[in-house]
Every structure is written in C-alpha cells, then in structure tokens.
Design a protein that fits this description.
Number of strands: 24
Helix content: under 10%
Structural class: mainly beta
Number of domains: 1
CATH class: Mainly Beta
Radius of gyration: 19 Å
CATH superfamily: AttH-like domain
Strand content: over 45%
Shape: globular
Largest sheet: 13 strands, antiparallel
Low-confidence stretches: none
Order of helices and strands: EEEEEEEEEEHEEEEEEEEEEEEEE
Mean pLDDT: 94
Distance between the termini: 30 Å
CATH topology: AttH-like fold
Amino acid sequence: MQNQIKESGVLLDNQGKLTQVGWARHQNLDCNLENVNFYQLKFLQWFRVKRWDYYAIFTPKRFFSATIADLGYAGNIFVYTLDFTSGDLHEEGIVVPLGKNILLPRNSTAGDAHFSNNNLSLDFKLEDRNRNLSISWPGFHDSLGIQAEINLVEPVEHESINIVIPIGKRRFYYNRKINCLPASGHIRYGEDYEVLSPDKCLGSLDWGRGVWEYSSFWKWASASGFLADGRTIGLNLGGGFGDTSRASENAFFVNGILHKLDQVMIDYSPENYTAPWHFYDNQDRLSLEFVPFKERVAETRLVIIDSEVHQIFGRYSGYVVCDDGEKIEINGLIGFAEDHKARW
C-alpha cells in the first residue's frame, strides 16, 4: 500500500505529470516546478503554486517558529514564540503582495531562503549539512523585538519523511519533513536571552511545494524531543488532503532513523480542540494520547485567501513500535497537533 521511492529523477515530466508517487527517506526527486501544467493559460499557473519553508525549534523553555512562504499571488511571513511555563504566546505576520522579495530554494537539499524589508529580515541558509537561521524583527510585539541566530545540524545518516502525492487529476503535493535536528545558537525575545544547546534543543523543517485545490483541509501532528534514555524521538503524523493510498506522511524517528507507518487515525473534537486527542494506527504500532495545554489560532481573511489554523500544543504519551519490534514508551513529549482549513 505504501510505495517507497528509491530512484532519483525529476518530480514532473514534460507534460507536467508526476513521474513517481510515494514516500522516501531522503529527497531524491528534483522539484522542477517549471514543468507544472494544469491551466491552459500558462501565465496563470505560477499564481497557484505554493511554496514554503517552515522551521520550528523546541527548547526546554519555549517553542519558536519562523516561516517564509510564497502562495503564488501573495507571500506570507510569520514568526511566533510560546513560553511553556507562562503560556505567553505571541505571533507577528505580514502578507507580501505577489511574493515580492521572497526567495525560496528549488529543493530542500541546497539553496537559501530569504525575505527582508525595512522592518524585518529572515535568512535561512544551507551550507553543507548545516542550516543557519537568522531572524531579526525589531518591532515584534510592541517593539519588544525578537532576534535569533540558530544552527541546525543534519547528520549524514539522518532520515526524513518525503512524500509525493496527487491531488485530483492535475495537482500534487511534494513535501519533506525533517525532525530532531540538533540546535545551537540563541534566541533573544525582549530582555530574555536563551542559549540553545544541542543536547537539549531540537529543530525541524517543514518544506512544502505543490498545487492544491482552492479549498483544502489537513491535520498535522509533530514533535521533536528526547527519550528518558537520551535518544531523540520525533513524530510526524497527518493527512486530510490528496490521495494517500500509495504514500502517507505518517512516521516516527528514533535517533534520526525513520520508522514508516501506514495509516494513522486521529480522534479529536473540532468543537473543543483542547480536549485530549487520540492517535492510533492500523498495524498496532502507535497509540498516543495528546493532552493539550495551549491553543494557537491563526486566521487570514483577505479577498482570495481565507485560512484558519488551530495549532494545539500539548504532551504526547503512549507507545510506538519500531521496525525491529522494539516497543518504546513515550511519556509527556511536548509537541503540537493542528487542524487547518484554507481557501487559497
């Protein structure tokens, strides 16, 4: 049911069709978006292509995230931070008409992402296997300001979940998610200065490219943390759009090694997002309870963009079963789960 892509190649053929559908442990298809072909009026196509680089950092103290996104007809830049102890959550974002001044790389394996204007600057640079994030937003939260210099290391043996799935007859989603990247550097938020240590802090990347239907919906759950024995543990669970019959994004990671899951069911209440969530799979390899402690709601209401995200932060407890049969107990792993509805 789950097709693993092992051969390298291009994402799209000369007619704009996917050359392969499935999942992989590394990005092995070149994201040749210049071959997209779903509108007769070719010049309109680029306005429907979505691209983003979303970075998240888990520290013992906070969750920090920075994103550069280009939705085709508009860009979206946002940064937010959550203090686990106080519950203080603040987010700032801007919409960039036609994605002006946004730079995003062709693939997740090389190239830089950048945006800047007179008020803020975001730089995501990739050098060898080091991802260097530089964020400066002096006016963030009533001029408290936020500034970060973060280095994420991707070891050679580190694996990620990569999926290529069709959406309808002519659209598609190409996604890479990397969990549990050791993080160093610092985050300054107002007068608070936090030094990041790779034995306590981990980062993740959500790298997405594709063409969606105008009305879309998805669920996504993620976490990067440490087990009691010191090994890293990462979760990536989700779905809700596209044809996942040959590839789901469901996986977990132990010390950077991917353990692929088939289908994962997510039980939760859209009427009460802060009630416990339950995750379980069809092979008895995962059973988790997610107990929320903070809800983030992000809404964008523009003429042609209508987006509503409920991102819930909480703690995961339960178990996962590795490919070799090892059963790992998870107790209080901090992560998030989200429900996202969009017309974009």
